[in-house]
Amino acid sequence: MIEFYASFDKDKEIEINKEDSEMNKEDIEMNKEDIEIDLDEVNEEERFDVNREMLQTNYFVKRFKNILFPIAASFYTSEGNKNVSKTFSLTSNIFDKKIPSTINILKESQIMMQEFLIELISLAEDLLKKRNPTNSLFYGDDKVIIYMHNLSSFDGFFILQTLLKSRILNYTFNLNKKLKVTSYEGLIYRIKIGNLCFQDSYRVIPMSLNKLSFLLLNKQKKDFDVENINSQKLQHIFKNKEILEKMLEYCLYDSILLYESMILIQKTFWDELKFDITSESTISNTAINFFFSKYYEFPTQYYWHTTTKKDGLSAKLKYDNKRVTVSTHHNAIFYTKPFLDQQLRSAYFGGRTELYKPQTSNGYVFDINSLYAFALMYDMPYGSPIYENEYKNWTTNEFESFFGFLKIIFITPPNYDILPVLPRRYPPPISHNVYCLGIGEGWYFSEEIKLARQKGYKLKILESIKFTPHKGFEKFVRDFFSIRQQYPKGHPLNLLAKLILNSTYGRFGIALTTHKQMKTFNQIKLKEKKNKKININI
Q: Which intervals hold domain DNA-directed DNA polymerase family B mitochondria/virus (predicted)?
């Protein structure tokens, strides 16, 4: 855990960090990717400076209005029966005489964070070797996960800043080649150094640490006022030994609470479902990978493998999941091509939400638990889609047995006085779905169209995308809903099970995106730097 001190405005920050903010903004494009630093054509010093500039421009100058820097940090873990913990803070001697300048405090903070990370990474290396002597930070199958609560939008920026600014860390742990950062839309989801991963516990359980630890452990954070720490308050803390110890105790106890909470969550899911929830950095990744690893049977295609021998041909039955064919695996989930994805997405309206002014007496209000998850228990579109755009006359049997999506023209029946079935998506200025009467055209799910036909809608089918109906999510939903029922509403494990169910539904509806590679350096500026002397500052 890390505690922070903030002061001064953005203009002063940019002035102080002028050397770190010269990179052209056009050289950086933020998209989701793994930033793998591998610039073989430049030397180590140039490479290090480029990465530092990328970090400063791309994250700090754009994100924070104030100068923010750590004043204390701590870690806690348990290996066997031994607890390992340590706290770090600014040195108190800089506050002995008068309030130090911001630049001096920044330097002390950088030294503290450097010591914190060296100790933490070295501890991870020791833990890996204790588990298996063949393990190391950069080889072996085991991993060390370090959780920070709110790594994505706060703590991770300071961890990454220290990693990219400290030449000692860079040379000791070969960060230019081993450091990987997973980011999306300006948030840091994972920082990875070989087999060491910094991950965000808030992306697993989105609630405050105080609430999380209280509901799971019946423990709460210690009392210490960390709000609005200014230079005067900072000097008061570090000149008073009792207050300083109280702050460090507060910081360490946060680490203990987070560790114990995540261990309990990990143990619960392993005991119930034999799945390690720490294997993924976000709840949506956890959900989809859990489904595929435990509840989805990956299709395989058997084939005859023939070899030529002296006494003739020899054949052996083998299987390979890369040889799966559309015709033989109706219950497989296939990737959808961009053209069909565009058509299917136009039929994706989401849940029906309409606002009325309800009036009743002696009435009832019903709430459906896990509605998205409940919908997954019905037949879902499986198999490879079959697209047809030729007009034909559909028989009643063909229409009733069809499962998939249809592009239709519809007309609501005259004097229709019940809720319309099919929505229409309106562009701006309306910009939302409207369930209305009259004539409409668009792509819709076949089961909705069948309901509309029962209500008297007149239909004309223009195009079709056929799938195979299959109940592939039923056991998955039942297992996680049973976990929800074991814990009261608001409990972290109830919330986690709910998020996994909803995230699985949402993950299968995620839009296709094109990821661009982040540009990590400017070739022209690198060439200009080759003839200049580079000052090394830790």
A: 140-534
